[in-house]
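User: what does the whole thing look like in 3D?
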Amino acid sequence: MIKMGLKEKEQKFFDYLKKMESYEEALNLMYWDLRTGAPKNGLERRAETIGILSEEWFQMSVSDTMKEFLDELTEKHVYDNLSSVTKKALQECREEYEKNIKIPKEEYKEYVILQSKSESVWEEAKANADFNQFAPYLEKLIEFNKKFISYWGYQGHKYNTLLHLYEPGITVETLDKVFAELKKHIVPLVQQIVQSSKKIDVSFLHKPFPKEKQRKFSEYILKEIGYNFDAGRLDETVHPFEIRMNRGDVRITTKYDETDFRTAVFGTIHEAGHAIYEQNINEELEGTPLADGASMGIHESQSLFYENLIGRNYHFWKRYYNQLKTYAPNQFTGVSLNDFYRAINEVKPSLIRIEADELTYCLHIIVRYEIEKLLFEGNLDVSDLPKVWNDKYSEYLGIAPDHDGNGVLQDVHWAGGSFGYFPSYALGYMYATQLMQKMEQDLSNVEELIENGEFQQIQSWLTKHVHLYGKMKKPLEILKDATGESLNPAYFIQYLEKKYKDIYSLD
Amino acid sequence: MIKMGLKEKEQKFFDYLKKMESYEEALNLMYWDLRTGAPKNGLERRAETIGILSEEWFQMSVSDTMKEFLDELTEKHVYDNLSSVTKKALQECREEYEKNIKIPKEEYKEYVILQSKSESVWEEAKANADFNQFAPYLEKLIEFNKKFISYWGYQGHKYNTLLHLYEPGITVETLDKVFAELKKHIVPLVQQIVQSSKKIDVSFLHKPFPKEKQRKFSEYILKEIGYNFDAGRLDETVHPFEIRMNRGDVRITTKYDETDFRTAVFGTIHEAGHAIYEQNINEELEGTPLADGASMGIHESQSLFYENLIGRNYHFWKRYYNQLKTYAPNQFTGVSLNDFYRAINEVKPSLIRIEADELTYCLHIIVRYEIEKLLFEGNLDVSDLPKVWNDKYSEYLGIAPDHDGNGVLQDVHWAGGSFGYFPSYALGYMYATQLMQKMEQDLSNVEELIENGEFQQIQSWLTKHVHLYGKMKKPLEILKDATGESLNPAYFIQYLEKKYKDIYSLD
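Assistant: Here's the predicted 3D structure for the full assembly of 1014 residues, as structure tokens:
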């Protein structure tokens, strides 16, 4: 292949990728639209449209054309002359190609049908708190995933292959170590807090706060922290999410609870963390699959950075508490800044993961991780799952579900066939605090910046070390390049111990 | 082809059409989204996405696969065994195929670029009221369209080919006749009104009416007249429009002018007329190109039916005027129902088509029709256009533009290369009144139904005679089947004379 031919081929590859990204933009818009107010009578046909465009995307990812690009552009004498973006794009596409091509078509179809069926059954089983109803589906989903692992291959533990889907580079070996560390420190700290005589008054949190005022305050805070409304918008949905149409259009949604403003305020800050990430990925990657978060965990590190390390920080509210009061003048009468700060950081072991506080959250994840590992090792029968679940909740959180509806059936993930996904949430917490520790070294005055509402410097640091790269680096590469070391749970543990011992006046 | 093979082939054809419709749904959603609040930084990439998906649709419409369907399914022994829906769908696709395939690719590309460039130039020229700036582009656009006509062929007058694009079956011969009739009656009636001593007080129309109240009243009225919010939604845009995602999702938009509530109220009723049409097309046609309005004119007949024959009807306000008052309590103090009715039907010759009243509207169209015909006959130089425009306005409307910005440059249509489109608006008025005349015969108590807010019967009549068919019938076929005769302008003239002589106490 001569030089000219190479450039042309490279360009054709990018045109092909751009077309795939265009399908994705259309699909994402349809997804967003379905959740922000598409009329119900149109849903059936819309589902077909989504199916048809998804199929088109999928076929492009495994087509002969794609195979040709992958083969021709990775021939050594060609590959060496490619730009680093092209190289990474080829790797991404190769992974996607291999992942999809290795599963026999018929089996994949069966699996998609099973997923969809399982989700409806799960919904009913959860409402009935009836695990037996869901168990046969769960068994089949696990069987399918075991078969997929056998097609895809694995290194070390079989479960590594699943982890790789969401968090490439993270293995059972790593997780066993870091989760053991977390348990060792968090479990006793939670116990200390539960047994402590210090009680936090949270009653004022639940006074009525009109939705419209919450919306205005949320918008104000979003602008303050650097969410760009010229490249996004805020809407209302039952389940909040962030979604990217393209680099200049990264939307977020929230929900408003008039008796708990935290839902909207911390929810929007969380989604804005995701969005600020995607609004600041290097423009050069636009139109390729690299214009996306590096992994679920790195994505979550950004949302949690904003939600917790900024949004639940004392210095943040030192600046914004008085502002908040002006949006709901009577709610906070007689509530000092300290009272407020403690209330929004109250620790309370609970049964439901998505309602958990910052300290106990990872324990919910560890329960799920340990169970998933056992399932894929073949050391746990699905029928024993509820018992193991409840035992682990008792052991780590000191409470146990009274029925499977708020126990083992609470999350949709397994019903959708997502195994290996949960650890990413916990990784997000660890990544975030590890990044913060380095940022504090580099900027030296992070608390001051927060207190002064100067978020631009904070964001610039994150953009420089995380956002810009999109998928150009793997998660641990980002972490290593940014902080100088690989995953180290010590920073998260230090952060939690310092913060919560202070709040609960322990030691 | 054996019977079994035929069914399969037919099914494959429908799958193919459904895929095209899916692209269209995605494109329409992107179009809607761009106008209802997509963030500005995303527009550039969005334009590319729209380009890529449109191209995909276009390629499907002229592909070898399409050609095969068209050829194989129209072989006589096959064709005779097809359902009527398949037959009509084949005709639609054949027309689209021929239209697109006959234009050389390179020429079409040049034309698309010219269109886009012309629209920007036109925008500037209009702002500068500088026709000379736009003239060279207009000349090229006309040249291109003349060439297209030579590729497509024509019967009778060359302009017929352009008319066919928007209003199949309507010819210069027909339009010359009906427009002559309209001029003969409307021009003197307008003169009489202008010269009459009767003046209508419209000052109260411009008192402030809060936007939120307008929105609520509009929603109320939309529900009353039968717009189905389970199959649609109402949003705000600079230029109101109606757009269909699918049969269960037909959206409308409006704009709110706080010093003229008529913009929103009559605007939403107008768009709802379009939407009620598309919400009630036969379900069997869904997923084919037949699930669309029969023509621009028939579409317009439905919006005008609702806007004018219902919305500006005395009996309508006899029912809803008191309701309206509750949304804007002070605006209508001392304004009787009769005053109100006359004010919303005030006749006032004006320069701008889109601001014209019901009586003078068609004169604006006739000016444009006569000019387009001259242009395509080769009997008018572009450079003479402003003069001819102004002369015709003086002759038909008794007023002339003071500059080309509110004269010949006012509409975007020509800049986009749309010639032959304007007559559809006037046809909509004639169709609507012709349908109403027959409906009155069939239902005998239409005024009573309106006054009682019983719109279901009215809608059922329209659905039975118009909506259901989608593109299964041509415009004049719909008219003939519904009313027993072809286009007859007498009904529109009668309607106008009766209504406006009454309002202005003439004769």
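In plain terms: The longest helix of chain B spans residues 3-36. Chain B touches chain A through 38 residues (CB under 8 Å).
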